Amino acid sequence: MKIAYIVTRSDLIGGAQVHVRDLAAALTGHGHEAVVLTSGSGPYVDALRAAGVETIPLKHLQAAIRPLQDARALLEIHSTLKRLKPDLLSTHSSKSGILGRAAARLLGLPVVFTAHGWAFTPGIPKREAAVYRWIERLAAPLAARIITVSEFDRQLALSHRLAAPDKLVTVHNGMPDVPERLRADPARSPVRIVMTARFEPQKDHRTLFLALAGLKDRPWNLDLIGDGELLPAAEFLARDLGIGERIRFWGQRMDVAERLAEAQVAVLITNWEGFPRSILEAMRAGLPVVSSAVGGIAESVQHGETGFVVRQGDVQELRGRLALLLDDARLRSSMGAKGRERYERQFTLEHTVAKTLSVYRDIAPGWQVPSSNGKGVLEGERP
Domain span at residue 128? Predict the structure, then answer.
């Protein structure tokens, strides 16, 4: 099967980009032909090509809404797809999701849109959310299926009548495994806490800093992975609270797994989410996770078992949960081990690939599933 993927940006390596990279590489390894359309170049494009995935740069695709530029991008996507002749188009992120669906409809291509968290989810400013909700209602009929990466997002779409129930399907994100040497040891001291998140309004570094400022009497260090426009303000706040010397600001990294392997606790303190991959990375490493109770996070973090979910913006609750983990090495180890087991049961990349292929099979009848010996297996059979 030939599958074309489209994601808006390659300079930003976020959840949608990692999802496309891992899925395209896995399907290529299974004998399918995957090609990724995206704007820009850099480490993300290099990683795709290193995995054997054909990558086509788009000159006119960009995240900002600019009608003339967007019209050019639509024509460029249309002509590229017409030349590629894929069996199916899989669209990711808001802008490419809309333009890709429109181009696929014009060509009569089956198309799937994957929502990596809705832009109208609770926590997003109401006026902005209303605009995105209206846009998604207009675009929803153009897709044969809409994949949500959490059941929370599926129910949110249903509550706003974006599409019929049988058109919306939940496929949780999954992550490829890492070597055993990249498993963490949560029992080690002093405790190193890690958070992987861009410095932007969606993430809530402020609440984390305020919570940790009340735990100065305990030994801990904090690693922050990510960059963004609010990074200077975060650095200033850390110094102002007297915890700047305990924090390492790593910026954007390509070695997140190595950083997690050195940690004992993972956190994701945030204002809104879909189904964050950073939590799955932490569970994969065997770390207990403390996160805000927003979006689909409770579908990954089991409160009291693999970590804790805390009320959004609640400094006191977050401080209390962190204190429990800082003081109890056995609790950290137990929660980390249970998180690793949960990852293995539900959130490996193999789970995501199998469920995604099932969606593709439903909307692109007649395609062949490659078998291990390189001979195709007709649709309807199992390899």
Answer: 2-176+348-378
